[in-house]
Design brief:
The complex is a heterodimer of chains A (312) and B (535). By secondary structure, chain A is mainly alpha-helical. Chain A is 67% helix and 1% strand. Chain A is built from 14 helices and two strands, in the order E-H-H-H-H-H-H-H-H-H-H-H-H-H-H-E. Chain A has a two-stranded antiparallel ribbon with strand order 1-2. The N and C termini of chain A lie close together (9 Å). Chain B has three domains: 2-116, no CATH class; 140-239, D-maltodextrin-binding protein, MBP (Periplasmic binding protein-like II), CATH 2.40.430.10; 296-533, MetI-like (MetI-like fold, Orthogonal Bundle), CATH 1.10.3720.10. Chain B has 19 helices and 15 strands. In chain B, strand 3 (159-165) and strand 4 form a beta hairpin. The longest helix of chain B has 36 residues, at 296-331. In chain B, 36% of the residues are buried. Mean pLDDT of chain B is 85; it is low at 1-24. The chains are: A mainly alpha (312), B alpha+beta (535). Chains A and B meet through strand 1, helix 1, helix 3, helix 4 and helix 5 of A and helix 2, helix 4, helix 9, helix 10 and helix 11 of B.
Chain lengths: 312, 535
Amino acid sequence: MAIIGTQAGPALSTPDDTPPPYEVVELGGAQGGWFRRVGWSHLVGILALAFSLFPIVFVVSAALNPVGTLSSSTLFPTQVSLVNFTDTLAGSFPRWFANTLIVGVLSAGVAMFISASAAFAFSRFRFRGRRGGLLSVLLIQLFPQFLAIVALYLIFTEITDVWPAIGLNSIWGLTLLYLGGALGVNTWLMKGFFDTIPKDLDESAKVDGATHSQIYFGIILPLVRPILAVTGLLGFIGAVNEFLIASVFLTDDRAKTAAVGLYGLIADDQTRNTQFGLFCAGAVLLAIPTVLLFMYLQRHIVGGLTAGAVKG
Amino acid sequence: MARSTADVETTRSAGAPPPSPSGKEVGLTADGTGSPLGLLFKILALGLFAAVAVFACIPLIRTERWVWLAVVVVVTVIAFWVYLSPRPIPLKYLLPGTLLLLVFQVLPVVFTVSTAFTNFSDGHRGSQEEAIAAIEGASLQRVPDSPVFSLSVATQGSDLAFLLLDPDTGDTFVGTEDGLDELQGADESDGTITAADGFTVLTTAEVAARSEEVATFTVPTDDGVIKSQGVSIAYVGAPQQTYDPACDCITDAVTGEVWTADGDVGSFVDADGNALAQGWQVNVGLENFSRVLTDPTIRASFLRIIVWNFAFAIITVVITFALGLLVALALNNSRLRGRTIYRSLIILPYAMPVVAMYLVWREMFNTDFGLINRMLGTEINWFGNTASSMIAILLVQLWLGYNYMFLVITGALQSIPADLTEAASVDGAKKFYSFRTITFPLLLVALAPLLIASFAFNFNNFSAIYLLSEGAPFSPDNPAAGATDILITYTYRLAFGGAGADYGFAAAISVFIFLIVGVISVVGFRQTRALEEVN
């Protein structure tokens, strides 16, 4: 998940869908036939829909295909059975899925809190080294963590010797690593948002005798919930979709995340055909939490995206 | 005391209560933590931190990593000072983030750069002493006329031990890491030891489970070392190739060949310049970088990779933007019914797990069983030739990326005031003309930072290449670099590709990526004016 910092705060509004309360009279609105007015919109929309949906339809029908091979999978299901799902759930997939959830929720949640604290300090205090600190955060967040994969692997080989619990083949090590990797971007995004919260609020609280921690936990954190949701969600989705580091770090089947595990299911030429149904069932199950979260937080995400988050 | 109070008053602002009720300088309540809940949380957090620090120190002491130990101790002391002293208020909020960023973000970058100047690779891992030990160990030969023992692998506690029986004399010995001793009172049957006091003889299955450990286990003796061969025989071996500190060289006792240590390349080299496979890690200066620029094969593939890397990222941004714009314009039609349904379904790919969807696309492009070949009635080996491989990758990128562009363009379109195009239309401008001269330039200005971010992201889009084509097709002259490889997948193959890890060289390629990302970022800064936010 690469994010370049822009004005995060103001952009958090969402594109407005609801029509204005009055009828907009567009110049030339009555010109042309049905096709020129709405027909072409439907045409483009339907083509775009077909393009967007056909791989997803294919995954779902392959997951429902009882034969479960790639060669027998069709775009639309010819037979429907849940056998791939039951097989997937009986194998290693539940473990991978749980690992993914643990890594994603923990790293995104803790990173959210730690970056919020840092953003609070940068936004509300004036101290020596503040400008230097902000510049470093800006610089650091430009270089995605995985670019240093060679060094990360060598460092974690050493760590495995000393503290195996957070070394290679451990989801706790991966969680820590993702956590550290998300901080730069998060802090930079959040600092922009914190700046948009009027300072009068904390100053009046200070006058009333509130301590800095009361201001932070009681006033600021509740007000910045939208940006917390966005960074938390992006962090979670980023961790679910991270493949490079996870594939280098996790080789033990029990420690794999869903992304690495699913990759392994169809890694070689034989299993590629025979286990495709299993793979698709896993992919559909993995999609459920991300799609649901996405739907639930759609308004926030749309705003967060315009604030500079990029995927794909 | 008076001075410290004054300091506190400037860090906190006027009107705040005195820093601590008791007036102490350092303590749990020194920074005004008054509520019982806050206190409890603070005590628990600091206690937990101390406990973790102590546990972290134990293996450090055992393995004698004194520098690491010092770092852990210093960090713990700093943490306690920050959270128990009233003064460093900003630090209380910055410390956890700073520490994690340093360890997991800054240190890896620094370490990448320093690794790029070494020859760290499969044959050059440790120190010269380790290389010598490995060379001598690998050249072990049975000492002539020495006994061949019948071996029973046993354990003493958790340590491995060899119970040895000399079939000629009937003498029994026990060999441990420390040396060889006589063994009294061992039970024998069929010429092997089956039991001995204080030892647990392992079964065949148990030995198989620890086979790697057994294979590398050696018992030092005066003539050399005792080493296992298989699971039931052991012999006294002496290295055929030995190190002589006087000439800093390795001599082969049988052939008489001599390899002299060359500190510049970290290898033992003979007179003809042939090096032993096992070397050690040394600083090689700019060697890795100059290899990229001077070795003709590597230079050719490196340049090809860079060109494709830029083309891949730029084309991805352009086509996703173009299709996103078309769909956004079409659906940004106030008379269109069902816009919300269109929108939420079109962006569905954006919510799907990317890794899985890349793999699904890869299988849709499968030559024999893939949906696309079946639907088209063709038998194209999509990832088997350069052009079709690139087309397939870009098509998937379009699928995955255009809906994001569609989302942000829709947002930007709605923020462009309608007055502008209406005014143009009053002046007689055609719809397309006003789009080209008014709407489109405004869109570009609004979305430029996002386009740059998208470019930067795709420039290092490892999954897109690795999960689709894996860099294929590969040309025979440089099997390490594929036709659709980008820099990060090339780095990955060099370090973890299975054809012998070359960490130093891979790190050098990473440094090139850092430089390119840095340049892109400078361009990005100009566009986003992000620097103005640093105030």
